[in-house]
Design goal:
about 400 residues; mainly alpha; Growth Hormone, Chain: A; 14 helices
Length: about 400
Amino acid sequence: MKDLFSFQKKIALFLVVSISFLMGIGIDLYVPSLPNISSYYHSPIRDVELSISLYLLGYGLGQTILGIISDSYGRKKVFIFSSLLFSMTSILCAFSSNIYQLNIFRFIQGLAIAGLASGMRAIIVDLFEGLELKKMANYFALSWALGPIIAPFIGANLSDYFGWKSNFYLLSVYGFLVFIVCFLFFRESNKKQIKFNIKTIKSNFIEIITNKKFTLISIMYGLSYSSVLIFNTVGPDLIEMKFKYSIVDYGYLAMFLGCAYFLGTILNRYLIVKFNNENILKSGVVFAVLASFSMLLLTFEYQNVFVIILPIFLMFVFIGLIVPNAIAITMTIFPEKAGFATSLCGTIVGLIVFVVTTICGQFDISEISLSLCYICVFSILYIIKIIVFKRK
């Protein structure tokens, strides 16, 4: 029995790492190709940027529904359905005849990744506790961080050599590999399946959503995630069109910024042994606010790509301290309702990111307006920090 449980934990670790990495590359892989996709479909860049927002909308809306299903019918069924759906819609994205079809399939892709994400977070709570749970939450954040490092470089070069559709072919293969592992090796981790009952679901929803700490920290998580995707949404247009860098150059810059978030999660890996999650999260928020204001000051004095990249690099480092600790805190508030709670957290995150990226995508982004976007996001984050952690 001990060996069986050990094997289950190893498979769980594989799924946590591989699914969170897939979550990271689901956007970053094709982001460098946004101008190329715009040209291919003869569509405004804003319509192409909407493919990111709709993906995140699907990611947000799908998590609560699929999280409830995983609590009632098991994680494995949700994993199998979601991974297969993700693989199929990735192919359909590549074969879309217009930007509207692409956006619809990206929304469905978001629903598929929502199922994988909700199940992945739930199995962490199913199988781990204490320091192990904290470490798994950090592995989640760490492997997600690898996406922004590796994906833009791979996506930019794939697009440069084989065209933008090759990015979606790669996503399809990845999704199918996750399906194979889930189908053949994963054993159901939800041993306390809850009977599907509308009244119980409503009661659980009210109990979780009215928990001030849970909801506000989920919002902090969403705003932090948004700050990464603000650059992913508007960065290609700003870097490739305004500053006249190539798609491969953008890939290198995005990879550099991805290293920043990865560095933050590595730093967090050592800090969680000595400090609690809340103190690390609060420090990350304070430093991120300072970095956003430094970016604005630099843009008034200089007009080049480095006044954008260097402050954002610092922000991403500090986000690497915020996100994994926000994840860990939300996971421990309702351990007996892991699937529902973590999925509801994911829904909050997805909806916030959808709203933020949609709003930012409506503006003609310059260095100054991008700085103001970051200041707004991190200022709200700081205000919420004060509310959540105010001294009693």
